[in-house]
Each structure stands twice: as C-alpha cells, then as structure tokens.
Amino acid sequence: MPIRFEEADNAVKTVLAQVRSEYFPELRNAKIITLFDTKRRVSGGRIVLAKIMKANDLIRLLTQDDDIGVEGVDYIITIDKVAWNAIESDDWHRIIRHELRHCEYDIEAEENPYDLICHDLEDFVSEVKLNQDDPDWRQRVANLTADIYEQEKDDKKGKKQKRHAAQGNLC
After folding, report:
1. What domains appear along the chain, each with residue ranges and CATH number?
2. 3-state secondary structure labels for all residues of 121-171
3. How far apart are CA 121 and CA 75, in angstroms?
4. Residue 145 CB: number of other CB atoms within 10 A?
5. What is the mean pLDDT of residues 148-163?
6. pLDDT at position 135
C-alpha cells in the first residue's frame, strides 16, 4: 500500500524559510518539517489545502538524532500536493503564512515554548489584511484543487470502463 505522505520539495522549504524570516522571527528556532499529502482530505465539507500539527512526544522522539544532537521536530506542515502543484508563488506564500499563523511562541514556557492557536475569524485578521489584493484566494485554490481531483476521478473511471470493454471483447 502506498504511503500517503512524502517529503515536500525544495520549493516548499524555500517558501517556508522566506515566510518565517519575513513574518515569524519568533519561530526561527522552531524545527518544522513539511510534507506533501498525496490524497484528498476534506474537513467540514471543504478541501484541506494544508494543515499544521504540533508534534507530540512520540513524533519528537522519532525525529530526534542523538548522534548529532538534533532534538525532535516542533511542528509538521502537510500540504495538499495537487493544490501546491496547481498554484503559483503568491498562493504558496499564502498557504505557508496561514499555517504559521497557527504557531504560538511562549518565551516563558518552562518546557516546550511552541503551541498552536485557532483562527481569529475563519481566518486570521492579519491574513485578511495581507490578502486584500485577493481576498478569495483560498476558495479559488480550493475550487481549482477540487476540479483537478474530480478530473483525476473521471480519468480513472474512463480507463476502468475502457478496460472492462476491452475484456468484454476478448470473451
């Protein structure tokens, strides 16, 4: 069975570094990994373009490397691969920036200073301001992604029908 997730490409890592540097200097020491989600995910009837998760103790343990003194990761961002490949740089930045808005850094925390926060609205007030030039970007990208998934589904259905037709002709 194929694995659902794969390591994100260098473009994602570059955008993550740029967005973190420009908007989230408090996260400069946070260890964040990015993965592509290769399957469609829907939540609340909407396509999930990306999701950030705070690493639990098990993930932190599995991602540490004692030999070189690397602690485990703090966050994991998963990005819908179909969406990422269908959009351009501006939307890449919007997706990463939105996910990083969920991160909270508490300098006074005794243990792990990283946590997650929910939206101010359905989005973040600061993101709404930054996206005034394209306020419906999320819906535009979600619609494009849904269309691509639907086309892939139709293509698979068509291939299956052709295969069954060809097998019927052999009998």
Report:
1. 5-170 (3.30.2010.10)
2. CCCCHHHHHHCCCCCCHHHHHHHHHHHHHHHHHHHHHHHHHHHHHHHHHHC
3. 22
4. 22
5. 81
6. 85
Instruction: Let me know the angle formed at the C-alpha of 135 by 53 and 87, rounded to the nearest 5 degrees.
Output: 65
CA pair distance 138, 110, nearest whole angstrom: 37
The structure tokens 């691969």 sit at 81
Residue 2 CA: distances (Å) to CA of 23, 39, 79, 148 = 36, 11, 17, 20
- DSSP 8-state secondary structure symbol assigned to residue 106: -
Closest CA to 78 of 14, 38, 35: 35
Q: Write out the two tokens for 19.
A: 């967005």
pTM score, whole prediction: 0.76
Q: Give pLDDT, residue 68.
A: 61
Instruction: Give CA angle at 14 (7, 103), nearest 5°.
Output: 80
